[in-house]
Design goal:
271 residues, globular
């Protein structure tokens, strides 16, 4: 049921609410999300311990949905046993996606091959379990290498089961060609707080995308939207993302909320 004064509900499609930065006031964070009209929060894993943390939170709060994966930045220290634990965890009926996985070439290029192998493993999990993928992509200082690598790998592995591969490019920030490639591959675009940044160019990218292709997210506790930029992010702020998308596309916030909620339900089979 909607709270008085709220005309629509929202889904935060990507929030690490198990993060230590939210430990001290998580009940208040969750209450602010409820008051802002956030109906569901989708939680990506980054490693094996985070999966256990998410399951615990699911027993404490309604409307939470976990995913399972090893973040590309954590692949350097991940073991085969870690991957086996993720694979087992993904069989839990509460799991809605394989994520977040992907490629990150920003900080350290010494284990690109391991990251690519990890991505392929997660792709196999997604296809075998018929789950969507949540992808993290970050390139090295403005280069386009990571995006071309991830699209190449998706196309190669997608041949295993044509038409079944699907998911979302989380925290989408371009380049423009990637939006078209994502759509062709069956992927949506996760739009977060960067759409409110005047120097990011995400608003221009969003302007040319159909609402049917978009999900909204916070990436809590990172990348808080304006006017909270630089501070800790939280799911309540996904409303600011929806408002900015509505402004950019010249539609009502209600239209953005309705379509992105429908998109999330369709992509993740939420109930």
């Amino acid at each position: 049921m909607l709270l008085p004064g709220l005309l629509f509900m929202l889904i935060d499609s990507h929030a690490h609410i198990y993060h230590r930065r939210l430990e001290q006031d998580l009940p208040a964070v969750m209450e602010r999300a409820r008051l802002a009209g956030v109906e569901k929060i989708l939680m990506p894993a980054i490693d094996v311990p985070s999966i256990g943390q998410m399951f615990k939170l699911c027993s404490q709060y309604d409307g939470l949905h976990p995913m399972g994966a090893i973040h590309p930045s954590d692949v350097k220290v991940a073991t085969d046993e870690d991957f086996a634990k993720v694979e087992r965890a993904l069989t839990d009926p509460r799991m809605i996606a394989v994520g977040e996985t992907g490629l990150d070439y920003y900080w350290d290029r010494s284990f690109d091959a391991a990251q690519q192998d990890s991505l392929r493993r997660h792709l196999v999990y997604a296809l075998e379990m018929d789950l969507p993928l949540v992808l993290h992509t970050r390139d090295n200082k403005g280069k386009d290498e990571v995006h071309r690598d991830i699209v190449r790998i998706l196309r190669e592995e997608g041949k295993r089961a044509p038409g079944r591969l699907r998911g979302v490019f989380h925290c989408f920030g371009g380049p423009a060609w990637l939006a078209d490639a994502a759509s062709d591959l069956g992927f949506m675009l996760g739009i977060g707080g960067t759409v409110t940044f005047s120097n990011a160019g995400v608003d221009a990218l969003v302007a040319r995308q159909p609402l049917e292709q978009l999900l909204i997210e916070t990436d809590t506790p990172y990348l808080a939207p304006v006017p909270y930029r630089g501070k800790r992010n939280e799911p309540a702020y996904v409303r600011l993302v929806a408002e900015k998308i509505a402004e950019v596309k010249g539609v009502s916030v209600e239209a953005v909320a309705r379509q992105t909620t429908e998109n999330a339900h369709r992509m993740f089979c939420l109930h």
